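Teaching assistant here, posting this on the class forum so everyone can see the example we discussed in section. The complex has two components, and the goal was to see what a joint structure prediction looks like when all of them are supplied at once.
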Amino acid sequence: MADNAIPARRITASDLEKFIARAFEAVDVPPADAKIIAELMARADVQGSEGHGIFRLPQYIRRIKGGAVNVKPKIKVAREAAGMALVDGDNGMGHLVMRFATEKAIEKAKTAGVAWVGVKWSNHAGPASLYASMPLAHDMVGLYLAVGNANHLPPWGGIDMLLSTNPIAVAIPAGDEQSIVLDMATTVAAYGKVKTKAQRGEMMPEGWMMDREGKPLTDPKRANEGFLLPIGGYKGYGLALIFGMLAGTLNGAAMGKDVVDFNSDDATPTNTGHAIVAINVEAFQPVAEFKKSVDVLVRDIRNSRRLPGVDRIHIPGEGSHAARADRLKNGVPLPEALLKALNQLAGELKIAKL
Amino acid sequence: MADNAIPARRITASDLEKFIARAFEAVDVPPADAKIIAELMARADVQGSEGHGIFRLPQYIRRIKGGAVNVKPKIKVAREAAGMALVDGDNGMGHLVMRFATEKAIEKAKTAGVAWVGVKWSNHAGPASLYASMPLAHDMVGLYLAVGNANHLPPWGGIDMLLSTNPIAVAIPAGDEQSIVLDMATTVAAYGKVKTKAQRGEMMPEGWMMDREGKPLTDPKRANEGFLLPIGGYKGYGLALIFGMLAGTLNGAAMGKDVVDFNSDDATPTNTGHAIVAINVEAFQPVAEFKKSVDVLVRDIRNSRRLPGVDRIHIPGEGSHAARADRLKNGVPLPEALLKALNQLAGELKIAKL
């Protein structure tokens, strides 16, 4: 969501990383861990996932200070078989836990062909595509599911928000083309988009939210009087439910009523659940052949005929690849309001400002 | 889609099965295989998946007679590792191939915890939930993806139908409650629903289809002037693409331009791709605990507060469980038009009628 309407300053990814690492070190996260978290959070901003990058830093720090997150977790494999593992994150920062779990999945998929790693006792880990994309470097497909950290979605026909926007991300390696990276919530709009509309004083289109009477809700300032709508009606409800059960219930992590709203609660562990699957292409066919097939498919889609008024047919992940190319060269644009909030945090933590 | 508006006769599942088996034997399918196919097709009708049960028999027989399907396939594991297998269906009936693949996934998941089995050189195999549900009896979760057998969906913004309604099905075992079974196409409506509307002379709601100018298409008789719409716009396009790549491209099966429309072609093998994943609950946590958590979640959802005018909050799979209970007791309702078509087929094949 790069937004040219809001004045922004460009900060290099390296400066973002160093700042984030300083902040975590200031709340007793070991330097090596702070560095890992910082690198992943900056990567989120670099790929254009602004709602899941440094924007979340004040909240993460607040929750660490509130005692909700363990800064010295003993992340471990709790259960294991040839094609799976269950990782216990010991309530550590989600980025640390998910990096551990994804590396485990990749390692196991090298011999098992496919490895499914479930995660419990984790926390918010940033954008889904961060982890789905990690297997790409090993010529593997990555598939990630998670239970969101706040319930904004009722079951279809209901008004009690028992479900989150439980996302799916899948990353598929290509040859000459860029990798395909799908990263989506199971709701029409993510809750962050609603907040952005409210900040700008804009109305939402019909179809994003509904009020408790079942009427369209288009004023984002009234967001707490209603709820998000799932994609495809009952189908999106089904996907949110199933993805949540695979990432949460199966792993003994929070799901349904047990989900803690990490926006309004700084003291309670969330027991966030995720699932990451690494699929080793080589186990199915020669990697070069597969990549060639992906390239052909991408080109067939991109070059296919378009509806009137459509300039380009997009491949999932194109936006992130473009953001990455721009931002690694020119820096990450940070809105002034965010910069101000981050530098206020720096003052509180007594660390060097951005 | 039980439909009370169309006169129907009730036929027992056992009579359906015997009839289907007779038909396949008449076109040289070995009796043991004919029995397996018949059992699965009748199961589709029993669970209410009418569009994927005996309704498809004339088409299946036509394609066998046309030489498109191999009636004596050597279905085999082409590649294998601890957490995966790739099954080569040798262009056999999809039901035979998918039963083989699902049994393989279940067998492997007993030791590997999770097993992902890809399938190539298969054919249309009936409803997705048939295979996703097979692991349930082993206290496993089943996850199924497939490439559909006709392209009705363009990429988002496009008009060339390069994608099918690529479905996902996930089945999750419960304790005292019924299992959760999601089975959905990634389009707002499946193509079968469009055909049904046309047969009845009814109009479609806006949102099902669009014409090549981007305008809503509501007359099902003009269906060939447009295409289906994905759930959630670009999100459903992304899901159809990704599910198709996991079930098709990864396995060396047809995807994109290579998909054969099995409705209009009786001679060309489809090289249909599927993926079935068996997830052994026991590898993650004690089965009884998991089932208890599922029961709690189901009840929390069912008992949650409803929108005005909503009688009941549904759990995915409820409709199928209800249809099964009714139809095993009272028989499967077959519309007179379908009965007539089936008995005409019986005449052609010189087998006993229904």
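For the discussion questions: Chain B has eleven helices and twelve strands. The domain at 73-187+230-303 of chain B is CATH 3.30.1370.60 (Ribosomal Protein S8; Chain: A, domain 1). Think about how each of these relates to the inputs above.
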